[in-house]
Specification:
The protein has 337 residues and is α+β, with helices and mostly antiparallel strands. The protein has eight helices and 14 strands.
């Protein structure tokens, strides 16, 4: 569905909020194979894959580039086709959800479960160093391992490193952890109810430009995200250049894009309320990326990895990795001894 020359509307009709206070996607992890195991055969870029299937250049540029540019943070479509195949399948087969309490609800839900199981969560205590070669921690499951924090020293029998990729690589010395990144900036806006953009549950894709890449009416999907008399929109800008741009300049680009799509409307009332700048939003996933990813185990014995960089760059990949790391620790380390 198209409006004017410069935008495409992508329906999110299957998109809904998770209403049970932070339960996301029915509280489950997709059972389908993740991208590295998605299909047999040699990997290739998304663009090459679509070319091979005969999709027109117009379709690729007007829909796939902005839509999957938002998913992979790469409008050139140089990302692995395995990521495309997996995400396309899951979007087609299942309902999409955002947590009613915001994306932070995912982490809070996991933390609540951990506390219920007896875990102690300590905040604001940075890890300065891991003694990877200390004592018996040179073979799997023999611990303990030394951990120097900003406050004390600890010697757990098993250590799970669940940080961003660059910190994990620095702490563990595992060279296979990917550190090349894709950047993004997301700006959030309030719009008075009287000026509401009547998109319904459709994402607006910027087909004639990349600033912003997409505009999403978040409160159409999750009304809890905004007061009754306001609309919450967000716009995503791709690449490192946007990281240093002034908030007012980003908002001006969004107003300009909306005005081009809705020439009969004025968007002077669009008010930026928050800007998220993510220099490391995803690690790069070129064709064949999965062949070089680390596993959850490390050469340092009782040190384990949990992060999307052991699976694929996504919240889904992070949750899969966390579950895999937990299973590995439980199978290798004595519990309660």
């Amino acid at each position: 569905m198209t409006r004017g020359r410069s935008s495409s509307r992508c329906s999110t009709a299957g998109c809904r909020r998770a209403t049970n206070s932070g339960r996301c996607c029915s509280g489950r992890i997709w059972p389908a194979a993740s991208p590295p195991r998605c299909s047999a055969g040699a990997d290739e870029s998304i663009r090459s894959y679509l070319d091979g299937w005969g999709f027109s250049e117009r379709y690729v540029e007007n829909f796939v580039a902005p839509f999957y540019g938002g998913i992979t943070l790469d409008r050139s479509l140089a990302t692995s086709s395995q990521v495309f195949q997996y995400t396309f399948r899951t979007l087609s087969e299942g309902a999409i959800a955002v947590p009613a309490d915001g994306m932070g609800a995912i982490g809070e839900q996991l933390a609540d479960h951990a506390r219920e199981a007896g875990a102690e969560i300590v905040r604001n205590e940075g890890v300065a160093r891991i003694d990877r070669d200390r004592g018996g921690a040179t073979t799997r499951g023999t611990g303990p391992v030394g951990v120097e924090t900003t406050e004390t020293r600890r010697e757990p029998t098993a250590l799970v490193v669940a940080t961003d990729p660059r910190s994990a690589r620095e702490l563990t010395g595992v060279e296979a952890i990917p550190t090349e990144s894709k950047s993004s900036t997301t700006q959030y806006y309030s719009l008075p109810g009287a000026d509401r953009v009547e998109t319904g549950n459709k994402i607006l894709l910027h087909t004639d430009g990349e600033s912003p890449n997409v505009v999403v009416p978040l409160s159409e999907v999750a009304p809890e995200y905004a007061p009754d008399d306001q609309t919450l929109l967000c716009a995503t800008f791709l690449g490192a250049a946007a990281l240093d741009r002034d908030e007012a300049d980003l908002a001006a680009d969004t107003r300009e894009a909306l005005a081009a799509w809705y020439p009969e409307r004025s968007f002077e009332s669009l008010e930026p309320i928050h800007t998220d700048r993510l220099p490391f939003a995803q690690f790069t996933q070129p064709p064949g990326f999965a062949d070089d990813l680390p596993t959850t185990t490390t050469p340092a014995g009782s040190v384990y990895l949990a992060g999307d960089y052991t699976e694929w760059s996504s919240i889904q990949g992070a949750m899969e990795s966390g579950r895999r790391a937990a299973s590995t620790v439980l199978s290798a380390e004595p519990v309660g001894e």
